[in-house]
Automatic annotation (TrEMBL), chain B:
SUPFAM superfamilies: P-loop containing nucleoside triphosphate hydrolases
Location within or outside the cell: Cell membrane
Organism for this UniProt entry: Arthrobacter bussei
Protein name: ABC transporter ATP-binding protein
Entry-linked Pfam families: ABC_tran (PF00005), oligo_HPY (PF08352)
Keywords tagged on the record: ATP-binding, Cell membrane, Membrane, Nucleotide-binding, Transport
Length: 344, 596
């Protein structure tokens, strides 16, 4: 990020250079020493809470803000248009109602002058309104992606943290389980279980996907813990009598936030793709319900004749994935106190 | 050792003439940081003549390393240099990379600080030296190998033929640095740049490496550019000194003159900040004949110690810390026997006393510090803190006791959680033990920051925003937050610059006087220990070889190892240092028999 970081291999140089600025601070210690009546004034310096600092840093990150805006927009659009869980939306068509095809099902959306028309995203081969269908798919994919991300993050972080911190038998046991989960191909487990789970609804399906995809995160978190637990600040915390719980959650975990967030965002993007693949094999979301991945798969032969059937869900997948990655980037920087510079 | 002075300078020597080997004029280095050029060095000018050792001294950030890297064109990618540096009349600054590559290793060679990382761990030491020889000459592999062995012999590696096939991890730290020197000398460079060549080494090893450098410099008639922060090393080795501060040369003078009469305020301040071994007790290694460790003065000291102990027991004083026959083992791995790091150590610190625990790396001093603070378990003996034996307590039983002792770590950068603000770090012990509310906690943190002379506004900062000295102040504030009776300080100043070290030591002394806590001060630096400690214990390979009052240990050491240690510590005074060098040779000669 800064030119220093680029030259990490020449650490001697960067150390000397960064120390130079620090050096000047050191000499003004004596002048900075507060006198008695100054201290009363200085004492008003409030201890800023960690949360506030993180928020401040996050909101200075332009990419993350754009990501949040885009994601919120997609959320609102998807859930308000066709409604959710029985609540009606503002869009007057259902995603599973067949209708006669109008103008070969071409999109009626025009930007100038702006008008939605009868079927803004067109209609699919069966004449279903493609806008409603895409919105339904977006809902499903968002729910799946975030549940998978959450479940994978919680399981992966817990397993990794416990294994890395306690070592010994705990580690051996947890990591062997991890290895077993890794060695069984997801598709095979899915073939055995997903068909049944998917029929129960998308939320059990999403939880199931999370339960099989936490392994990468667990290994990364364990690696981080292994190196951090040997650091002096952990010893320092032990020497003042901090409990293992406190050391794990207050001292080590915050230092691994970067790794956790980056791999969680990757897990979220990955979950969308995994869901697509499983839906393609008929093991994921089942018709008449749909997801973005399923919509693309259903219409994959239509690319040349009816490209809109391909492009609309594709655009939403890209939009969601990009937004999530930008937010992840912003979060990682926000949790890193060394990040003082603002990304433009 | 001197028997091996076989002639290695077999190549045709370039006649050196009378001019300087290197003439640097108006050299400047800048770095591009966030699209702004930041000056790292400016208007640096000096000359080095054949056979001379020039030392560039400065604290971190003075630009001493960068101005030397610029000579070889080894600046990081965001750096640029300007000005002039002529090597035997050839301009180096702005020369094309090809020319510089021929100069590097051939005419100018470098020795780095960390010999372990500078050597390739998968190649034998001999091969690496041979590689350096082959790089710039046209010798056959067999000839190159012969020469590599000669070089190993020249840097005084015993059994050079056999050691040729050893890997770097089979060498000790000092031997590795010797091997690095051999690589540097492979092509008879005219200039040797030694960047902190002994900083990573123990004092006794440092003294040997410095001796070697001095000898080689005399023999090869080449020049040495020594970059260091250590005034003792300068006094020991250099002919001329250039003092740098914030990228500029402050003062340049012959070594003797600089130390005797520094003209600039910064030099005076720098010299004043260096702890001077023997300054408090008046000289070290008093010139008394020590025969088999028997000396009447020792009996006097022993009597004094006994009397002191009797008065303590009579008045019912409980020692702040008492170690009795402590053994500490690191568990062995598969088929590896456990490693005994500390062997039967006993020592006592009374309330309000400062005990210096001195030893070289691997002596077990940090291990003891960690055992005392309950971070590692002892495998034998008793550790009593304020009368309570902590060796058999469970973590839960130990918890309330943790208020009574605290530890300050060596590396202030690593011992503070980078994700906790300074205020949270200092307040953590208070939060854990006194369960204070927010407001009360804030007040206590503020007053602690004040005690260690940091602005209260620092509470919202993070460790990386502070300098090394400020971080160590935070470490001290954290350790003192619960008003411990015993403070364990594990090399608290060894990662700091001398002037910063002086301030931190002053602070520690002041706080110790005010609060009267007992202190176990672990250090490798005898001069620092002398400033603070009333008693000294010397550790060697896990064994306590000597303990007594500071004066006793420094002036009349009983043990051969203590004497070697005292003799090896460089003193920032060239005249004294020259005397001490002779003394050291005598001690080594005397100790050579009982060493083996």
């Amino acid at each position: 990020m800064t030119p220093h970081d680029k030259n990490r291999d020449d650490s001697r140089a960067s150390v000397e250079l960064s120390e130079m600025t620090l050096q000047s601070q050191d000499t003004d210690i004596s002048t900075a020493r507060p006198t008695r009546d100054q201290t009363d004034r200085i004492r008003t310096t409030e201890a800023k809470s960690q949360g506030r600092l993180i928020r401040e840093r996050f909101f200075r990150h332009k990419g993350a803000l754009a990501g949040i805006a885009l994601l919120v927009l997609i959320f609102i659009l998807a859930f308000s248009s066709i409604g959710f869980a029985g609540l009606p939306g503002w869009w007057n068509k259902e995603y599973d109602v067949l209708a006669p095809r109008f103008n070969e099902g071409r999109p009626t959306l025009t930007l100038w002058p702006f008008s939605l028309g009868e079927h803004p995203f067109g209609q699919d081969v069966l004449g279903r309104d493609y806008f409603a269908l895409t919105m339904r798919g977006t809902q499903t994919s968002l729910i799946i992606a975030f549940i998978v991300g959450l479940v994978a993050m919680v399981i992966g972080t817990t397993v990794g943290a416990l294994a890395g911190y306690f070592r010994g038998w705990t580690e051996a046991f947890l990591m062997r389980i991890t290895d077993v989960v890794i060695t069984i191909p997801t598709v095979v487990i899915a073939a055995a279980v997903a068909g049944i789970v998917a029929k129960a609804g998308i939320i059990p399906f999403a939880v199931f996907l999370g339960v099989v995809t936490w392994t990468g995160l667990a290994r990364l978190v364990r690696g981080e813990f292994l190196s951090l637990r040997e650091k002096e600040f952990v010893e320092s915390a032990k020497s003042v009598g901090a409990s293992s719980f406190r050391i794990i959650f207050r001292h080590i975990l915050p230092n691994t936030v970067g790794v956790i967030i980056v791999s969680t965002t990757l897990a979220i993007s990955g979950a969308i793709l995994l869901e697509t693949a499983l839906s393609y094999l008929g093991l994921g979301v089942v018709a008449p319900d749909t997801s973005l991945g399923k919509a693309i798969n259903d219409n994959r032969s239509a690319l040349t004749v009816r490209p809109w059937l391909f492009l609309w869900p594709g655009a939403f997948i890209i939009g969601i994935a990009l937004a999530v990655n930008f937010i992840g980037d912003g979060l990682r920087d926000a949790f890193d106190p060394k990040q003082t510079r603002v990304k433009q | 050792m001197a028997a091996h002075s076989s002639v290695v300078i077999s190549d045709e020597q370039v006649p050196l003439g009378n001019g300087p080997i290197l003439a640097v004029k108006g050299l400047g280095v800048d770095f591009n940081v966030d699209n702004e050029w930041v000056m790292a060095a400016e208007d640096v000018s000096y000359e080095i003549h054949p056979g001379e050792i020039l030392a560039i001294v400065g604290e971190s950030g003075s630009g001493k390393s960068m101005s030397s890297m610029a000579l070889l064109g080894l600046l990081p990618r965001n750096g640029r240099s300007h000005g002039s540096a002529r090597m035997l009349g050839k301009e180096l600054i702005g020369a094309p990379q090809g020319t510089l590559r021929r100069v590097r290793g051939n005419e100018i060679a470098m020795i780095f600080q960390e010999p372990m990382t500078a050597l390739n761990p998968v190649l034998t030491v001999g091969e690496q030296i041979r590689e350096a020889v082959e790089q710039h000459t046209e010798l056959s592999p067999a000839q190159a190998k012969k020469r590599a062995i000669e070089l190993l012999r020249m840097v005084e590696i015993p059994e050079a033929e056999r050691r040729y096939d050893s890997f770097p991890h089979q060498f000790s730290g000092g031997q590795r640095q010797r091997a690095m020197i051999a690589i540097a000398l492979a092509n008879d460079p005219m200039l040797l740049i030694a960047d902190e060549p002994t900083t990573a080494l123990d004092v006794t090893v440092q003294a040997e490496v410095l001796d070697l450098l001095r000898k080689l410099n005399k023999r090869l008639n080449s020049a040495v550019l020594l970059i260091t922060h250590d005034m003792g090393v300068v006094a020991d080795l250099a002919d001329h000194v250039v003092v740098m501060e914030k990228g500029r040369i402050v003062e340049a003078a012959p070594t003797a003159r600089l130390f005797a009469a520094p003209t600039e305020a910064y030099t005076q301040q720098l010299l004043g900040a260096v702890p001077h071994l023997g300054s408090k007790v008046g000289g070290v290694l008093a010139d008394v004949e020590v025969v088999d460790g028997h000396l009447s003065i020792h009996e006097e000291y022993a009597e004094a110690a006994l009397r002191a102990r009797e008065t303590h027991t009579a008045s019912g004083v409980v020692p702040a810390l008492e170690l009795t026959d402590v053994d500490i083992e690191y568990p062995g791995r598969f088929r590896q026997p456990p490693f005994k790091a500390v062997n039967g150590v006993s020592l006592t610190i009374n309330p309000g006393e400062v005990m210096g625990l001195v030893g070289e790396s691997g002596s077990g001093k940090s291990t003891i510090a960690r055992a005392v603070t309950g971070l590692i378990r002892t495998s034998g003996g008793r550790v009593r803190i304020g009368g309570t034996d902590i060796t058999e307590l469970t973590a839960r039983q130990l918890l309330p006791l943790r208020k009574k002792f605290a530890i300050v770590f060596q590396d202030p950068a690593a011992s503070l959680n980078p994700r906790l603000s300074i205020g949270d770090s200092i307040g953590e012990p208070l939060l854990l033990h006194e369960k204070l509310g927010r407001g009360e906690l804030d007040k206590r943190v503020a007053s602690l920051l004040e005690d260690v002379q940091l602005p209260v506004a620092f509470r919202n900062r993070y460790p990386h925003e502070l300098s090394g000295g400020q971080r160590q102040r935070v470490g001290i504030a954290r350790a003192l937050s619960l008003q411990p009776d015993l403070l364990v300080a594990d090399e608290p100043t060894s990662a700091l610059d001398v002037s910063v070290q002086a301030k931190v030591l002053e602070l520690l002394q002041e706080l110790q006087r005010e609060r009267g806590f007992a202190c176990l001060f672990v250090s490798h630096d005898l001069a620092v220990v002398e400033l603070l400690a009333s008693h000294i214990a010397v550790l060697n390979k896990g064994n306590l070889v000597e303990q007594g009052s500071t004066e006793q240990v420094l002036k009349y050491p009983r043990d051969a190892y203590t004497r070697r240690l005292l003799a090896a510590a460089p003193v920032p005074d060239p005249a004294v240092q020259a005397l001490r060098r002779e003394q050291r040779t005598a001690i080594l000669a005397a100790g050579a028999t009982d060493q083996d």
